Amino acid sequence: MLRGVEADALAALSSAAGPAGANPSVDRLTARKIIAVGPGPAIAPISAPAPAASALELAGRAEPASALEIARYRAEASIRLRLQGLGPTIAHWRNLRSRYRLQTADGLPEPGAFARGYAAARVHLPWRRLCVPDSLALARFLWARGIAGDLLFGVRLDPFAAHAWVQFGELVLSDNVNVVADYTPVFRL
């Protein structure tokens, strides 16, 4: 499902150890159904601004946030992911996003203040941090306030890993910059 440079990199990785089945990294990715052999649609590249700063690392005020509201969004994300999987959950969140009146310019609330408020309230919840449900919850929290934060999914190849985070322009809202800088965005909601 990859093309161009990404396909060449994966091909080089799969042939680096010799014949098929001889590269444990590729075998693990195939066994976990992260990659597959065969035809498929190409993954269209996305453009996303490179992260320049993180709201969590910048000093500034934090807008008060309700732990109860955050718990509701986080629980819904976790339950949907567990029962329906990633695709239907993303489709549901896309539908939710379309219902909110999102602002992108003048009159916009300060995204960093809301991200810091969310982070301060999130520490009171009993769940361990997981990037996908936490990013879904933060995105919805921001959308409810008119902030058009983007949920980004990214990957890195060596060693393979995937990550999700929320970003507004060049400002990362859910992580530190050095964490997301290691990933290439492949999907944006």
Outline the structure in words.
The protein has 189 residues and is of the alpha+beta class. The chain folds into two domains: 1-44, no CATH class; 53-188, no CATH class. 43% of the residues lie in helices and 14% in strands. The protein has helices spanning 4-15, 24-31, 67-84, 86-99, 111-122, 131-143, 177-180, and strands at 53-54, 150-157, 160-168, 171-172, 184-188. Strands 1-4-3-2-5 form a five-stranded mixed β-sheet, covered by helices on one side. It is globular and about 55 Å long. The mean pLDDT is 82.
Number of DSSP E strands = 5
Strand residue content: 5-15%
- Taking the alpha carbons of the first and last residues, their distance comes to 20 Å
**Coarse structural class:** alpha+beta
Strand-helix topology:
Elements: H1 4-15, H2 24-31, E1 53-54, H3 67-84, H4 86-99, H5 111-122, H6 131-143, E2 150-157, E3 160-168, E4 171-172, H7 177-180, E5 184-188
Parallel strand pairs: 1-4
Antiparallel strand pairs: 2-3, 2-5, 3-4
Helix pairs in contact: 3-4, 3-6
Name the descriptors.
14% strand, alpha+beta, 43% helix, 2 domains, 189 residues, five-stranded mixed β-sheet
Quick summary:
The chain is of the alpha+beta class. The chain has seven helices and five strands; from the N terminus they run ααβααααβββαβ.
